[in-house]
Design the sequence.
């Protein structure tokens, strides 16, 4: 029975080409995730799931394993995370491995912390939850949000909240996009992550930056000196 990290890293990113191995703060982006997984000392194996030979080679030089190449049907723009992790678990079981706790770590999470991996795992094991994942507060109260129409007019989603003070509204959280602990069975059964059977491991907003667009990347580069030192 083993504890496994799986880092999904496909080669076909469109908005930021080759973003998983593009250099960020002095090393390939995926290196930050691999390094945190190694430093926390929790994992029996650190696996990179990729369809790309160059990513596979770089991952191996950084200390991760690439025991299989991810099939094309799990490597397009529409593939969700859960099937990718389930595929990795299946592949390891076929090798004779017996994964119990599996942590999906995103390859574009340069502000991930080995300490957070360890603390969140302790939280995960204290409960009967199927998953435990990083979350953070929205920067602005979403219950006072509005949409902007084509003519630039606005309409509130919840007009009844216009007169309410922000501190009187519920605090809303979102996925921080760093990592997700889960029982192997939960991944393989396709259980939803954002559900009552999951735990949120809350981290501060200043350590969170999703990286999907060139603007996201530029913002993360501005944040990096303060966070990474």
Sequence:
């Amino acid at each position: 029975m083993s504890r496994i990290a799986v880092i999904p890293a496909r080669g076909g990113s469109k908005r930021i080409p080759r973003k998983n191995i593009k250099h960020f703060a002095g090393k390939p982006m995926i290196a930050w995730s691999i390094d945190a997984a190694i430093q926390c000392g929790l994992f029996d194996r650190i696996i990179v799931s990729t369809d790309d030979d160059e990513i596979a080679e770089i991952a191996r030089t950084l200390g991760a394993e690439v025991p299989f190449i991810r099939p094309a049907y799990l490597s397009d723009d529409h593939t969700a995370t859960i099937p990718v992790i389930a595929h990795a678990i299946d592949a390891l079981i076929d090798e004779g491995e017996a994964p119990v706790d599996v942590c999906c770590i995103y390859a574009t999470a340069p502000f991930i912390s080995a300490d957070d991996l360890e603390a969140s795992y302790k939280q995960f094991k204290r409960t009967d939850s199927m998953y435990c994942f990083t979350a953070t507060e929205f920067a602005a109260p979403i219950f006072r949000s509005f949409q902007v129409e084509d003519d630039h007019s606005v309409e509130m989603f919840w007009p009844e909240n216009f007169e309410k003070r922000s501190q009187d509204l519920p605090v809303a959280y979102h996925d921080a996009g760093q990592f997700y602990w889960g029982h192997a069975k939960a991944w393989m059964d396709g259980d939803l992550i954002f559900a009552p059977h999951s735990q949120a491991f809350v981290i501060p907003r200043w350590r969170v930056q999703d990286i999907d667009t060139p603007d996201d990347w530029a913002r993360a580069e501005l944040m990096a000196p303060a966070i990474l030192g």
About this structure: The chain has one domain: 2-134+174-223. The two ends are 37 Å apart (CA to CA). The chain is about 30% helix and 25% strand.
